[in-house]
Structures are given as C-alpha cells and as structure tokens.
Amino acid sequence: MRVVYSKKFRKKFSKLDRKLQQKVFSAISNIPTGDIKKLTGKRTPVIYRLRVSKYRILFNLDDELVKILIIDSRGDVYKNIGD
C-alpha cells in the first residue's frame, strides 16, 4: 500500500517530538489496522480517523493509496477538515 502525505501533515508532523513521531509513523504503516473509524457525513471522498495517543490523523483510503491529510490534537483536528 502506497502512502502519500499532504503538506499540512508534514508541517505539523515535523513539530512533534521524536518519540511521538515514531508512534505516529508506526500507526500509519499499520493501516488498515489500529483504532480507525470512518467519519460520518456526506463527504466525498470518505475520510477516516486514526487515533494515536491524544492526536488524530485524518486520511483517505483507496485500493492501493492512503492519503494522509492532517494530524492535530483531538480537539482541533475536526475544525481543519474543510481547509
């Protein structure tokens, strides 16, 4: 499965400490397993949420492509979906 990272994700990811970066990278490499939920609503394409500690990672999932959209704390991540 190929993983593509958005510019927004890379910017936020670079600000995290090394230990958390390793946890996030490990969780992403294990997609589609982990604490993943499909977000509700009428979004196209469908957005999924991956939980890592107090952070949430939003991503799209196609047959062979995972597009990582954004990572943020659980209180702020859903505010940035439309951006």
Instruction: Say how many strands there are.
Output: 5
In the CATH hierarchy, what is the superfamily? RelE-like
The value of Rg in angstroms is 12 Å
Summed up, the domain count is 1
* CATH topology-level fold name: YaeB-like fold
Mean pLDDT across residues? 90
**CATH architecture name:** 2-Layer Sandwich
Report strand order across the widest sheet.
Answer: 1-5-4-3-2
Number of contiguous helices: 2
Overall SS class: alpha+beta
CATH class: Alpha Beta
Spatial shape: globular
Helix amount: 10-25%
Q: For the terminal residues, how far apart are their CA atoms?
A: 26 Å
Largest sheet: 5 strands, mixed
Strand content: 25-35%
The residue ranges in which pLDDT falls below 50 over 5 or more consecutive positions are none
Pattern of helices and strands? EHHEEEE
Description of the structure:
The protein is α+β, with helices and mostly antiparallel strands and 83 residues long. The protein has one domain: RelE-like (YaeB-like fold, 2-Layer Sandwich), CATH 3.30.2310. 24% of the residues lie in helices and 34% in strands. The chain contains 2 helices and 5 strands. A 5-stranded mixed sheet has the order 1-5-4-3-2. The longest helix has 12 residues. It is globular. The N and C termini lie far apart (26 Å). The model has no long low-confidence stretch (mean pLDDT 90).
